[in-house]
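TA notes, week 10

Several of you asked for a full example with nothing omitted. So below is the full record: structure tokens for the whole chain, then the designed sequence directly under it. When grading your own attempts, check the secondary structure regions first.
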């Protein structure tokens, strides 16, 4: 029996700067690992199977589990992986912009690599966040579709993070379609501007300076639709957070506190489904 921790991510900045030939959007983002969020147990077996247990929220997985899709892809390339029985204990639901499925796929790839299968190259095909979640980097500047990574140096005990999971979910592909309709391919930032903005954001956070609302091109859409986030952001401000924002294409929101100023975070907002502290 093998155990793997599965990591999630938040985006400390997220700009869409163009379109790639693949149809994917070209991103400039700071990915920051959170977790471990899920736990994967793997046994060799007679047939593939995944049992999913959501430990904190009432959620479900739509369609085929990303773990099975990962095995399909690798086997289709001619690598003979034996049948696996997998148990997945999930704290983070899908559709929350936290790389929930990507972190599980990264944990499976990590197991397969340690078992001697050369499968790292499949990471980017499985999901835009998988290369980062498979990497050792705790923080990275991500470009391309999210797979071009430049690790950033972060003082490990600098921040405490609260991730707030609302009652609503966002489907990443749908959110990109809505972003296209909103921006009409006239993106707010060029690659160069987004990169220098991301570096400035990161430098200020590393110095522990106040920033407030972090850049994310999906924020306008989500804040228009769910004014509820504003009350949460006011709670973050009141409790001394230095920065907050939306993660990925939503739906979760998060905040960062300097370690020494953090006295815990909880909220009574009725639409909040869960709060995770890291
Ligand atoms: C938006 C982010 O949360 C930022 O961290 C992630 O890049 C999303 O990563 P992910 O959920 O792993 O995304 P994938 O599963 O690869 O893609 C889901 C869908 O989102 C869209 N997608 C995703 C990433 C990207 N750079 N451009 C896109 O247009 C595509 O329509 C794709 O079919
Ligand atoms: N093991 C898994 N964990 C989570 N989602 C999974 C899993 N397997 C399949 N899925 C499906 O993948 C999709 C993940 O949704 P989505 O891409 O919006 O993820 P997310 O958690 O919001 O992360 P991201 O930040 O990568 O966008 C959902 O449709 C979900 O049902």
């Amino acid at each position: 029996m093998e155990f793997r921790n599965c990591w999630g991510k938040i985006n400390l900045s997220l700009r869409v700067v163009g379109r790639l030939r693949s149809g994917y959007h070209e991103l400039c983002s700071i990915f920051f690992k959170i977790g471990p969020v899920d736990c994967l147990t793997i046994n060799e077996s007679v047939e593939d199977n995944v049992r999913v247990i959501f430990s904190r929220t009432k959620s479900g997985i739509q369609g085929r589990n990303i773990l099975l899709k990962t095995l399909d892809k690798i086997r289709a390339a001619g690598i003979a992986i034996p049948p696996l029985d997998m148990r997945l204990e999930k704290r983070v639901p899908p559709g929350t912009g936290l790389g929930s499925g990507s972190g599980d796929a990264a944990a499976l790839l990590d197991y397969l690599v340690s078992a001697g299968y050369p499968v790292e190259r499949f990471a980017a095909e499985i999901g835009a966040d998988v290369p980062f979640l498979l990497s050792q980097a705790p923080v990275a500047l991500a470009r391309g579709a999210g797979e071009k990574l430049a690790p950033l140096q972060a003082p490990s005990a600098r921040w405490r993070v609260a991730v707030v999971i609302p009652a609503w979910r966002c489907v990443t592909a749908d959110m990109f379609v809505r972003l296209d309709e909103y921006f009409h391919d006239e993106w707010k930032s060029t690659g160069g501007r987004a990169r220098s903005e991301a570096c400035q954001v990161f430098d200020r956070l590393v110095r522990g300076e106040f920033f407030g609302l972090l850049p994310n091109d999906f924020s306008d859409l989500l804040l228009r639709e769910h004014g509820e986030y504003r009350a949460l952001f006011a709670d973050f401000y009141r409790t001394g957070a230095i920065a907050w924002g939306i993660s990925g294409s939503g739906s979760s929101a998060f905040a960062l506190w300097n370690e020494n100023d953090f006295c815990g975070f909880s909220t009574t907002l009725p639409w909040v489904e869960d709060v995770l502290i890291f």
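The chain is about 30% helix and 30% strand. Use that as a sanity check on your answer.
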